[in-house]
């Protein structure tokens, strides 16, 4: 099966899994991640098929979104095998999508994403910052009925993965300090770093305006 047909079927698979998502991880997010990955690929010598496949599939096994990530991964691997991906390709794609999240970076595991994974990670994290990132953070927080802001509640530091996933101890505004503002300095590629500069400032300006309005200073 040629690359075009493989990616076409992968796109359909992703739509079937995330097409009804209401947390900010729906197919529009996937499309932006894929488009950004394609942009970064223009200046990075990574395997295009591996990169775009991982970009399409990265949220289909996310523990925020599926009740049984292990079963979801097994199903995904079986699907890729049916598309004639090799065992080595399936292993690389699986490694990328199970190790690229910010939550995974909070663990003590020592690992290095391959370049294809670094590109997908950059594309995904760029979609978590800037104007889109602000919107998605509020949308996700609202979906989980998080508090918007509590000035008396300081952002958490040195979190474990489990603590990070505990939304009872988070506010939407604190999420910017606990994750989103950190992403710019964790990116891998020059293209992503350049794009992140402006998006970072958009978030900083938003937080300044938000706090001024919260305190009736603006």
From TrEMBL:
Transmembrane segments: none annotated. Signal peptide: none annotated. Keywords: Hydrolase. InterPro entries: HD/PDEase_dom, HD_domain. Residues 22-138 form the HD/PDEase domain. GO terms for molecular function: hydrolase activity. This is Metal dependent phosphohydrolase. The lineage of its organism: Bacteria, Bacillati, Bacillota, Bacilli, Lactobacillales.
């Amino acid at each position: 099966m040629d690359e075009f047909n493989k990616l076409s079927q992968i796109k359909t698979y992703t739509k079937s899994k995330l097409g009804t998502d209401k947390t900010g991880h729906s197919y529009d997010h996937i499309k932006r991640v894929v488009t950004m990955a394609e942009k970064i690929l223009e200046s990075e010598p990574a395997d295009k098929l591996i990169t775009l496949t991982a970009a399409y599939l990265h949220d289909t096994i996310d523990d925020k979104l599926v009740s049984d990530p292990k079963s979801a991964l097994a199903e995904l691997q079986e699907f890729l095998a049916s598309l004639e991906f090799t065992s080595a390709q399936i292993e690389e794609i699986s490694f990328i999508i199970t190790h690229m999240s910010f939550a995974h970076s909070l663990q003590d595991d020592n690992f290095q994403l391959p370049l294809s994974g670094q590109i997908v990670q950059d594309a995904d994290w760029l979609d978590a910052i800037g104007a889109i990132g602000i919107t998605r953070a509020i949308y996700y927080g609202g979906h989980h009925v998080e508090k918007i802001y509590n000035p008396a509640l300081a952002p958490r530091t040195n979190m474990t993965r489990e603590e990070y996933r505990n939304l009872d101890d988070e506010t939407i505004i604190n999420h910017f300090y606990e994750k989103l503002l950190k992403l710019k300095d964790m990116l891998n590629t020059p293209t992503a770093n350049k794009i992140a500069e402006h998006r970072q400032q958009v978030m900083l300006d938003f937080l300044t305006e938000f706090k001024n309005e919260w305190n009736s200073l603006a």
